[in-house]
Specification:
With 270 residues, the protein is of the alpha/beta class. It contains nine helices and eleven strands. It has one domain: Purple Acid Phosphatase, chain A, domain 2. The longest helix is centred in the first third of the chain and has 15 residues.
Length: 270
């Protein structure tokens, strides 16, 4: 059985800047993207359709008039915790940002849902860290006390309610995306391993070994998964999971050439 991680983590140093005493002297990688590309990376959505729509509007306004290639990388965890998991997937499939290359990464919550569909008893822990609200968003498990002996019934209900397009979407999500000097992964990478040797389980689930690492990676890693009150700007990584489902703060990191800036719900440009 896959070992499910704890729901939240203790907060690391919140300054997250290269000159913070907690970072030590880490050699910074020079940030860059291919010329003529502007890339937006969106953190963990967790069933907050309202915030996704607001952030999409900010991105459209920000990209208006830009004539180069536009791309958006979603870092995963589209479902669970928030009440509109199904609606978030619907929006990503049916109303993508027009004119953008869309890259969807696999989060640990999507993988947990797929595991539940394949092996409900072994992956029943998913119900305890967000899966129940996702079931309800699909109209499964309504009026049912979700007990351990009912997991196969719940799986069958979800399987019946899940549109084929949603299953195809989830199955098509990538473990990682690399562009310019950046590597995008839901949770992070295993320090010391080349990108081509990274395991999907680490890319979706790793936490402490990656967050605490001072190692210079081959790329600047942009990730979600580990919640912080503010974006973590570290020399070897940028963490953009600002706990949107509870905080209302959904973050997009905007990258162009060597520039880095933010768009955030409720804040506009930050």
């Amino acid at each position: 059985m896959k070992k499910f991680v704890e729901r939240l983590l203790g907060k690391p140093d919140k300054t997250g800047r290269a000159d913070s005493p907690a970072t030590g002297n880490i050699e910074a990688i020079e940030p860059h993207l291919p010329a003529g590309t502007r890339l937006y990376s969106i953190g963990d959505i967790h069933g907050r359709l309202d915030l996704l729509e607001e952030l999409h509007e900010l991105i459209r306004a920000d990209a208006a008039g830009f004539e180069g290639r536009k791309a958006v990388v979603y870092l995963g965890d589209y479902i669970d915790r928030g009440a509109q998991s199904r609606q978030v997937i619907d929006r990503l499939i049916e109303q993508p940002l027009e004119g953008f290359d869309a890259i969807h990464l696999m989060g640990n919550h999507e993988q947990a849902m797929l595991d539940f569909l394949a092996h409900p008893e072994a992956a029943a822990a998913w119900l305890g860290f967000g899966g129940q609200v996702t079931l309800l968003s699909y109209g499964a498990g309504l009026g049912r006390i979700q007990l351990a002996h009912q997991v196969e019934i719940l799986r069958d209900e979800l399987e019946t309610k899940l549109p084929p397009s949603h299953l195809e979407f989830l199955a098509s999500c990538r473990p990682m995306h690399v562009e310019g000097s950046y590597c995008f992964a839901h949770a992070g990478i295993r320090p010391g391993l080349p990108l081509e040797q990274q395991r999907p389980e680490d890319l979706m689930w790793i936490r402490d070994e990656f967050i605490s690492s001072r190692e210079v990676h081959s790329h600047i890693v942009v990730h979600g998964h580990s919640i912080t009150e503010e974006v973590e700007w570290m020399p070897n990584r940028i963490g953009i999971d600002t706990g949107a489902y509870a905080s209302g703060l959904l973050t997009a990191l905007v990258l162009e050439d060597g520039d880095q800036r933010l768009l955030q719900t409720g804040r506009g440009h930050a």
